[in-house]
């Protein structure tokens, strides 16, 4: 373990143990980056309060017991411990990182992590909201995989439910070929809206639609065939979006709502038999403790409607039971819109009462904030229709072409770069803000070559590559030793050592924006380094080698980090 913050945590804990007794050896030393040193430990302040002693005195006691082989310590202010690592230590660790295939990323005991993400609805167009859950979920899946966890992706497609009665009847009305063509082209929304309009205005159509539902649920072969065609065609569209984006979801990850349909009667039986659910006004309901509606009445989670039908909640209960019992999940991440927060709280609570979710399993709703248009409302076209994703992605590529410099690439290469930059911009915009915040979709901002954007990081990475290209050097072949003569060299080395714990934090907290911020800092620190420290033109050979080593390590960290974000880096830019 060579991450500076972790090393210092361990050291301060040892000092806490020997100064105040072993019960303090597991205390969080509260180590933070500092303006006045590399890091500062703030533990003395809180500990002093509990021990009823003067903070500076407590800080001094910690300092006196600290192993100072690689770190110097100074008590400052009201009782902060300023910690500065020895230059030689930083340099050695950085050189070792170059030899470490994982660049410092830990490999903890593997867990089975289920990532439920993307989950568009077959009946409708995939909208920007699904784009964001897809992109954030994909980064979480990649990151857990990289940490050595067994990742099971679950694309919980909306591919079942009573609305399919209506959709199948509409499909028959306009003709199979015409209907399927619309779905394959991503016009699911128009299709859905037309069906809905007829359903609301044409009693005969409404009747037919209702009669179709039991046929679907009962497994009538012709109805099932039409339903399957329907799903297959909209999946074809989703697949195209995933491919364009470079998202790792495949057909094997599809575990849509329809998959759980056969389990629903048994789910309800078990809930009823064990007394977890009860009949209320004809419907089978769970009343998870602590959920109150209007008038302070207990809030029901309806698992079987009074007409015998099942709903979204029933399916999610079946899914959670399956994921824990059959897939043996240790952790389940639901990367889904923040608007579904209450739904998941209630489903988790009900599953806990049922004993399906127990203490050894963590279920988490990774809440995804809405993507807004420039008017501050849900992102739509001017005429109010939701935007076709493939159109949006195409536009990103066209706009990216205008942003990338003209260096005489052949048209094919140029298109490739534009695709990478366009997709990088869209993905990074979703990843770089905290996942639960709303943000305004703005092509100009996300495609900017300066600031915390995907294209800026791609550009910064491509530029380091060009240093090696210009020097005729393979960055893979560069090794240490690293020497830290200039403060900018030291700052860069120290920062690069933090990569592993950032990646671990992304997985632990489900917060990809931490990796974005870190990579942005790395790129900026590299820029300062490059401005004050010539690399290829360094005067001394040993300095040149050391700076090449720092550049190679920076390149590897940026490439690995962007790869975890699912962002490709053009060879040149
Ligand atoms: N299809 C749903 C929607 O578009 C999202 C499903 C999320 N996953 C889940 N297990 N409920 O809102």
From TrEMBL:
GO MF entry, a single one: ATP binding
Keyword Ligase carried by entry: yes
Principal place of residence: cytoplasm
Compartment(s): Cytoplasm
Keywords per UniProt: Aminoacyl-tRNA synthetase, ATP-binding, Cytoplasm, Ligase, Nucleotide-binding, Protein biosynthesis
E.C. number: 6.1.1.19
InterPro entries reported for this sequence: aa-tRNA-synth_I_CS, Arg-tRNA-ligase, Arg-tRNA-synth_N, Arg-tRNA-synth_N_sf, ArgRS_core, DALR_anticod-bd, Rossmann-like_a/b/a_fold, tRNAsynth_Ia_anticodon-bd
NCBIfam families: argS
Quaternary data: Monomer.
Family: Belongs to the class-I aminoacyl-tRNA synthetase family.
Protein name: Arginine--tRNA ligase
Organism (species): Microbispora rosea
């Amino acid at each position: 373990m060579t991450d500076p913050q972790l090393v210092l945590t361990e050291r301060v804990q040892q000092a806490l143990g020997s100064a105040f007794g072993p019960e303090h050896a597991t205390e969080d030393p509260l180590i933070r980056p500092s303006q006045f040193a590399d890091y500062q430990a703030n533990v003395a302040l809180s500990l002093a309060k509990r021990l009823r002693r003067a903070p500076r005195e407590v800080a001094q006691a910690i300092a006196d017991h600290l192993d100072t082989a690689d770190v110097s310590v100074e008590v400052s202010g009201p009782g902060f411990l300023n910690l500065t690592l020895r230059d030689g230590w930083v340099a050695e660790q950085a050189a070792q990182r170059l030899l470490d295939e994982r660049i410092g990323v830990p490999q903890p005991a593997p867990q089975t992590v289920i990532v439920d993400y993307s989950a568009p609805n077959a009946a409708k167009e995939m909208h920007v909201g699904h784009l964001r859950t897809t992109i954030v979920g994909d980064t979480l899946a990649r990151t857990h995989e990289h940490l050595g966890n067994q990742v099971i992706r679950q694309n919980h497609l909306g591919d079942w439910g009573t609305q399919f009665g209506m959709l199948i009847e509409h499909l028959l009305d306009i003709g199979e070929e015409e209907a399927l063509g619309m779905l394959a082209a991503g016009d699911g929304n128009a299709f859905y809206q037309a069906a809905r309009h007829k359903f609301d205005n044409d009693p005969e159509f409404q009747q037919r639609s209702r009669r179709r539902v039991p046929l679907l649920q009962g497994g009538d072969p012709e109805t099932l065939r039409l339903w399957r065609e329907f799903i297959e065609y909209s999946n074809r569209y989703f697949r195209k979006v995933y491919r364009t984006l470079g998202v790792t979801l495949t057909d094997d990850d599809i575990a849509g709502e329809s998959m759980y349909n056969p389990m629903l009667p048994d789910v309800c039986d078990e809930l009823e038999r064990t007394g977890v659910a009860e009949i209320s006004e004809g419907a089978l309901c769970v009343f998870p403790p602590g959920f109150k509606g209007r008038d302070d009445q207990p809030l029901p989670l309806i698992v079987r409607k009074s007409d015998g039908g099942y709903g979204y909640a029933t399916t999610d209960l079946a899914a959670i039971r399956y994921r824990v019992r059959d897939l043996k999940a240790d952790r389940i991440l639901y990367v889904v819109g923040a608007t579904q927060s209450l739904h998941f709280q209630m489903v988790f609570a009900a599953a806990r009462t049922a004993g399906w979710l127990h203490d050894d399993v963590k279920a988490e709703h990774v809440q995804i904030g809405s993507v807004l248009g420039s008017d501050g409302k849900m992102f739509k076209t001017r005429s109010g229709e939701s935007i076709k994703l493939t159109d949006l992605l195409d536009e990103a590529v066209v706009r990216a072409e205008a942003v990338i410099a003209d260096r005489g690439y052949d048209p094919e290469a140029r298109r490739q770069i534009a695709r990478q930059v366009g997709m990088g911009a869209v993905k990074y915009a979703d990843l770089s803000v905290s996942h639960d915040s709303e943000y305004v979709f703005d092509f100009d901002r996300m495609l900017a070559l300066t600031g915390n954007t995907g294209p800026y990081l791609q550009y910064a990475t491509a530029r380091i590559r060009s240093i090696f290209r210009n020097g005729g050097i393979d960055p893979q072949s560069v090794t240490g030793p690293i020497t830290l003569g200039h403060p900018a060299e030291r700052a860069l080395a120290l920062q690069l050592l933090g990569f592993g714990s950032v990646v671990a934090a992304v997985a632990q907290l489900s917060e990809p924006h931490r990796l974005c911020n870190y990579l942005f800092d790395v790129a900026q620190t590299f820029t300062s380094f490059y401005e004050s420290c010539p690399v290829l033109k360094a005067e001394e050979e040993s300095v040149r080698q050391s700076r090449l080593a720092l550049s190679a390590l920076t390149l590897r960290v940026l490439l690995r980090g962007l790869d975890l974000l699912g962002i490709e880096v053009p060879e040149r830019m």
